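Reposting from the mailing list since nobody answered there.

I have sequence plus structure tokens for a pair of proteins and want to know whether others read the tokens the same way I do. The first protein:
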Amino acid sequence: MAQETVLDYLGEALEESDFEFDWKLEWNKRQHAIELYFSIFAENKENHVVIEDVEGTANEGEIIQFEDAICFFDPKKSKIQMDNYLKAFPFDFKMGIEKGYIDAVLKTLRIVVTEGQSDLLDFATDPAIDTFELNWNDTNFYGTIKTLKDINRYSEEKLIYPKY
């Protein structure tokens, strides 16, 4: 039986997690990276308010969509722009990455996006709030890893990078 890949495990975990946000998983073969894009939405009740993203793209519709991404990459082969992601996780594709680490990433991502959804709703309804962004919290992430290990729910089973 073939060893499970990061891409397979992530896809299955995302399907089973029933996240309350839209997501898309992409394998960027050229950059030796696996990218997880996710989107949250809020109603723009003040339809006359124009909202611009960091690139200057205006959103004048009734719905505000915010998209961000995390990335798993091989620092020896990838040439990614770290600031294009909410968080980028380096790992050696030959050595693999532990399932428990992926589980901690997804648990932390759920918290970050849930808080972000609330913040986006505040942003959409409170004219005093002039910026919105998601914030990854490394302290919570490493705390999640520790907790999973403490309660024996951290799997050290390695996931490999997919083969072409």
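The second protein, same order (residues first, tokens after):
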Amino acid sequence: MRADAARKREQVVAAAGDELADLAVAARNGEPIRLSLDKVAARARVGVATLYRHFPTREALLEAVYHQELTRLCDAAPELAASAPADEALLAWMYRYLDFVDSKRAMGLDLRAMVASGAITQANTRARLTTAVAPFLEAGVAAGVFRSDVPPDDVVAAMAGAVFAADPTQQRDQSQRLLALLIDGLRA
């Protein structure tokens, strides 16, 4: 792919991610949501034809956004783990996880279709999140802040539970409180 084409592709993915973040806010306010490819193209400052050249379907674009945002979330973990005490760093990263989940809600039925088709797998997502959580736990155990008997996979399962068990009318606030409880439960 030529450099200019790769740059435009990245612009489209970034614009779609930003649009989904805006839609997640709208969804929390009860507004109807649906990703508009015209709005994504305008936000990316490319023509609709350019968008479709790189992403022939809405699902292809959303899959690229999903993978990019998951990579960004997971890649941020080691640096964040090294930048603050383990409990504070892990909670800050968990809040980023909430942002990731919020933007996925805006994908709605499209995300369900991608999971059903196998384009996105829960196993891969969970494995990547588990790998990302490990540095926080290792740093916390080494500092005497966290218990040593909790595997990263259990933390990921509890994070998902906190998000999906929260009352829809207070989704973000309750999820944040549940994640703070999870941090308290990890303490030595």
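Reply #1 (J.P.):
I read it the same way you do. The chain has a mean pLDDT of 91.
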